[in-house]
Amino acid sequence: MDFVKSAFFDFSRNKGRTFLTSLGILIGVLAVVLLTAFGLGLRAYIEQQFKDLGSNLIRVVPGQILKNGSFSNTSSAFMSIQFDEKDVQKLDRIKEVAIVIPVYSRSVIATAAKNKESSTLYASTEGVFIALNLKAEYGRLFTAQDVSKRSKVIVIGPNLAENLFLSRKQAIGQSVKIEGQKYSVIGVVNKKGGGFGGPDFDAFTYMPYKTAYTLNTNKTFMAIILQAKSDKDTKAVIRQAEDVLSKQYDQDEFSVIQQEELLSAINSIFSIINTVLVAIAAISLIVGGIGIMNIMYVTVTERIKEIGIRRALGARKSDILLQFLVASVILSLIGGIAGLSLSYLIVLFIQPFFPAYIDLNSVLLALGVSSAIGIIFGVFPAKKAADLSPIDAIRYE
Fold first, then answer.
1. Is 131 contained in some domain?
2. What pLDDT, on the 0 to 100 scale, is given for residue 221?
3. Quick one: average pLDDT of 62-87?
4. CA 120 to CA 88: how far, in whole Å?
5. How many angstroms separate the CA atoms of 316 and 120, rounded?
6. What main location does UniProt list (predicted)?
7. Average pLDDT over all residues of the chain
8. How many domains are contained in the chain?
9. Distance from first CA to last CA of the chain, Å, rounded?
10. What is the rounded CA–CA span in Å between residue 149 and residue 24?
11. Which residues pair with 123 in a beta bridge?
12. 375 and 237: one domain?
């Protein structure tokens, strides 16, 4: 207890030095905790997106996307095949399938009056709104009749509506030009979210896939989404879809992927990325530790006479060692707790916009690393102080 009081007394005499030394640890802990919080938030966001879509969705895509639970290099296989309406019709015959949704997607520029905005064209059937859990906030969604008649209508995301027409409601009935073709906006969907490194669903342009044949001249699809009638039918749908497609394509030319498999692969990537980012951020903790070591060496040099007097009065080496080691650990903990507190305030501020959060592991990591740095980088100066000869220390000028 006396060592703790002594440490705080020394800190109070050198407030500026104490602050600057702890600042290195503060920045390091702040970086590590915030990166961990952002990683956890991004994972939670993606998991919620998948939950909103439902667990009974199955994606059929070109190439072998997954291998042993992870994403594989599919660049060559991806370009090897393209799905068409015949594939859609064959998959539609599977009795456990509720909806078959062909998807053609690409980046486009949407123009309305003098406004231009980048958008992702998502051409499909009317079933896409059921599969993606989208509802019309204003206007209506396109129907099977719109698809079969190739009606020149589109449904747009709320962000795109606001950017092109200033408000979502005003977008209804307006015309949007995409690659020289005019389309009438019949609906604006509810806010879905997106971005943060993924697709911005609120800037999508949804179009009947047959209407998009003027843009998709090959009449092919980048993916086909299947919705099973229930969760228990999912495995049967995957098996039958593989059987149907294997009659037309080689096994390595396509993938039939369940939501959970895709989510698991994405999470494994995020885990690796987050680990690398935290490791990079941890470099600043090492820098902060070196700062503590330097300051403790300076402190030892300033207090050599005091150390000599204490040794002469009977203080043991272990007492001197513990005195400076406790001061080093406390200095690290001050920076760690300050960094953790600041991280918490920043996370609270951004939570309304992004689901970042600090878990118990982050707290334990921050305090544990702070303490460890204090011990590791405090040992050398503390040992130097303890090893001083009492006579030489007293004579030191």
1. yes
2. 92
3. 65
4. 22
5. 73
6. membrane
7. 79
8. 2
9. 30
10. 66
11. 104, 207
12. no
- Number of Cβ within 10 Å of residue 281's Cβ equals 19
Are the CB atoms for 58 and 256 separated by under 8 Å?
yes
Q: Which residue, among 301, 331, 317, has the nearest Cα to 389 in the 3D structure?
A: 317
**For 273-291, what is each residue's pLDDT tens digit?**
777 777 777 777 777 777 7
Cα–Cα distance measured from residue 152 to residue 391, given in angstroms and rounded to the nearest whole number:
96
State how far the alpha carbon of 13 is from the alpha carbons of 293, 320, 324, in Å.
Answer: 19, 20, 16
Whether 310 and 274 map to the same domain: the answer is: yes
Residue 200 DSSP code: B
Query: For residue 237, how far is the Cα from the chain centroid?
Result: 31
Same domain, 243 and 300: no
Report pLDDT digits (tens) over 157-175: 999 999 999 889 999 999 9
302 and 272 in a common domain: yes
Q: State the pLDDT at residue 195.
A: 47
Range of the domain at 360: 2-47+266-395
3-state DSSP call for residue 198? coil
φ, ψ for residue 47, nearest 5 deg: -60, -40
Residue 126 lies in a domain: yes
pLDDT digits (tens, 9 = 90+) for 344-363: 899 899 888 778 888 887 78
Does residue 103 sit in the same domain as residue 243?
A: yes
What is the pTM assigned to this prediction? 0.63
User: How many residues are there in the chain?
Assistant: 397
Separation CA 277–CA 271 (nearest Å)? 10
Tell me whether residue 108 is exposed, middle or buried, using C-beta atoms within 10 angstroms of its C-beta: 0 to 12, 13 to 18, 19 or more: middle
Place of tokens 């040099």: 301
Per residue in 124-138, pLDDT (tens digit) is: 999 888 888 889 999
Question: Are residues 338 and 209 part of one domain?
Answer: no
Encoded amino acid at 125, one letter: T
Domain identity same for 232 and 330 = no
> Is 173 inside any structural domain?
yes
pLDDT score for 361: 78
Say if 157 falls within a structural domain.
Answer: yes
Provide the b/e sequence for 165-180 (b: ≥16 CB within 10 Å).
Answer: beebeebbeeebebee
- pLDDT category, 77, cuts 50, 70, 90? very low
